[in-house]
Amino acid sequence: MKKRFSLFAAACLFASTMSLPAANASQIASNSIKGSLVITGGSLGSSNAAVYQSFIKLAGGENQAKIGIVPAASGKLKSSKDFKSDLEKYGVKSENIEVLPLSNHDFSDTDFDELKWKNNVNNKELADQIKNFTAIWFVGGDQLRITETLTDKKGKNSSVLDAIWTMYKKGGVIGGTSAGAAIMSDVMITGGDSLGGLKGEFTEKDEPLQNKEYEKVYIEKGLGFFHYGIVDQHFDERARLGRLAAAAVKYEKRKDLYNSYGIDEDTALIVHNREKKAEIVGRGGVTVIDTSKAKPASKKVHPVNNVSVSFLSPGDQINLQTKEMTINPDKDATKGNEYYEFKPLDATGLLTPYGRLKPYLAYSLTDNSSTQSVKSYLYDSKGKGYALTFSKTASTNGYWGYQDGQKDDYSITNVKLDAVPVSVKFKKDKTAFKNYKPSNFKVPDKVNRGDISGNLVIAGGALGSSNEAVYKKFLDLAGGNSKAKIGIIPAASGSLSSSNAFKKDLIKYGVKEDQMKILPISSHDFKGTAEDESKWEENRNSDETAAAIKELNAIWFVGGDQTSITEALFNPDQTESKALSAIWDIYKKGAVLGGTSAGAAIMSDVMLAGGGSLDTLSKGFTDTYNGMEQQEGGPAYLERGLGFFQNGIIDQHFDNKSRLGRLIATAYDKGDRSQLSYGIDEDTAMVVNNKEQKVEVVGRAGLTVVDLSKAEKKKGHFKNIAISALAEGDSVDLKQKTFAISPHKDSTKGYEYGDFKAAPHSGVLTPHGTLKNYLSYNLVDNSGENIVKSYAFHQGKGVELVFRKTETTDGFWGYKDGGKDDYSVTNVVLDIHPVSVRLK
């Protein structure tokens, strides 16, 4: 039986006195430290040049750096050897990098017994060698192995640890990833999760895992290199806001002076002790938690209250002494200039748009003029948990800019967080969707196009300029850099900036400017130009435009509003214009057609033009379209697409906007259920080879494939939907409807890494929050569960999503870009049930 803690008991736990040993006096005098820290949140990609180069620069540069790698945290020597190879790739001489013989356990991938290295921690020769290094790096694994290796049972420093401190105080740099980040603060978070933290369950001793749906937050003493608060890692991926906020309330004794810091994977917090400043470098962000204004806990007040939450992105900085944050000057403040104006749904599970914490608060709160607060939940399978309210205050602001091309890049300051206990009860409800409206959209008749020799590169949106794999695939299919003749159709956008940006990207990848042209195809005027582009509407039936298209071997549709593309290329009576016929002509002969976002939506015959997942499942469809606002929610709106993809329905921005529900509802009602349907993630492309009848996944995220061939629907209930989540290097046979998984991955079936009870996916603090990762970590690579659940609800009505294993379910795991987990999932079965919801 699970232990239940009352709010008062939790408050008492938060109020208890920290029993950890006090920091050494030498560690407290931060003014004496001249060195720096590179604290990395885990899963550091080998290609993350910004972090590696920062570390090497602080170590003295490629030629002067002398780096020692501490392997103690890992169970293998491989991670240390790999890090050494990465440093060499970035220019450090091999002879200036040494894997230090420091461990308190044997490694599984060597013949030598590294347990014998334990005595090296007090070896004078090794200590003297370390004093002359310019940098130390701690690899990931188990942080306790590091502290137990470098200190004795009473917490006393070894000679080697004293030597590392000497190097650091003189000006050396200390870095680490994952476990190597956790050891950086004096208060070290060693285990546990957000639900355990909010329940007030802490431990300061090593206890066996309880196989609960949550774990107590385990606190030990770290090495204290970072003097300005508590550090946590794998922060966004494992949704650790709750555990860090709770730990900060309980264990941070100088809340007035110090924040706490949650560092995302593939991201570093770089600390400059001399300047008492830190900067963010890498691919994710750093969450800054200020608990200085939290009110004392009581029976009516949860300990995590009035907590200030900020999100810093690469290029942002923080003054560690004053807590003042400096945002990258390339970003504009959103306060008073909010882009969005829509009523966001609560973040309740896998169907919530922008369902990770920072995107949810950025799009739904700080850059949205229509709301002052948003809410999410975190609870166990019994419905016991917490409602989390995120609110704007007078000091709240958001900052927006572009990164890596035209991808949104947000920073957020001073959002207020309050946690309140809640009990959530779900009951299956046959009447929940009694107002469901079917679609009146008439699916266009299939046109026999004959053999198609061309190919498609369909990108899910937010395509990064640095995403070489997608750009290279598009150009290869166009005959290569020198032979490509590319037309860019700007019709979806409100300006020519995205078309010009795409041209610029192609030039970077080797295409000459005279090989590209922006085609004069649009039904509306563009901002920022002297010409009235609405007059281009006539060009759709211009012989000159059609002739120009026929000279091309590649077409690209930029993003924006997909209805503007179809309006520009179909005649008012829905017949094909001459321009569209010309595109079909070159496509059939071998041209490649590509597009991103709106340019992906138009690829299938049935075009998803608007709507959200929960609204579509519960309310159905609408015959009216109110523009881009409808992209953020509401019933689904369908129009006729251009039909270049002949094998099913496509949706885009799939992971970020959580569009699984709307794709399922649309494909079931308006699709051919003998075909698969496809949801393409951002910064990822679905590459279609028509001759081979094959789909290949290219890019940085994934492709969700929905199989409705065995699905049933009755009064809003769906049964037997097959869900597969593919990644780069995987492919789909369109004829056989089978999957080929990248050969670098191994099947997890029968070899599952995890063995635990998984809590439902309930909101923005659910670990591994994207669809693919939630199914990977919690279901297919977990022998402890055969089903996992998620919920989505609004105003007392919603859906229960039940994902289950069957005999045909499999998972596949490997590493990518260094030591990052890379999963694929095939044939998880999904059932969807309408439910009524009661909160108290």
Characterize the structure shown:
21% of the residues lie in helices and 28% in strands. The chain has a domain at 32-333: 3-Layer(aba) Sandwich (Rossmann fold). It is of the alpha+beta class and 840 residues long. The strands form 5 sheets. It has a 19-stranded mixed β-sheet that branches. A 9-stranded mixed β-sheet has the order 3-2-4-5-1-11-12-15-16, sandwiched between helices.
Can you lay out the helices and strands and say which pair or pack?
Blueprint lengths: L6 H9 L9 H4 L7 E5 L8 H10 L8 E4 L7 H12 L7 E3 L24 H8 L3 E4 L4 H8 L8 H12 L2 E5 L1 H4 L4 E5 L2 H5 L3 E2 L13 E5 L9 E2 L8 H11 L8 E4 L3 E6 L4 E6 L3 E5 L16 E6 L4 E3 L5 E2 L5 E2 L23 H10 L6 E7 L4 E8 L5 E7 L3 E22 L26 E5 L8 H10 L8 E4 L7 H12 L7 E3 L24 H8 L3 E4 L4 H8 L8 H12 L2 E5 L1 H4 L4 E5 L2 H7 L17 E4 L9 E2 L8 H11 L5 E5 L3 E6 L4 E6 L2 E6 L4 E3 L2 E11 L3 E3 L4 E3 L5 E2 L23 H10 L6 E8 L2 E8 L5 E7 L3 E20 L1
Parallel strand pairs: 1-5, 2-3, 2-4, 4-5, 7-8, 9-10, 22-26, 23-24, 23-25, 25-26, 29-30
Antiparallel strand pairs: 1-11, 6-8, 10-13, 11-12, 12-15, 13-14, 14-21, 15-16, 17-20, 18-19, 19-21, 20-21, 21-42, 22-31, 27-28, 30-33, 31-32, 32-36, 33-35, 34-35, 35-42, 36-37, 38-41, 39-40, 40-42, 41-42
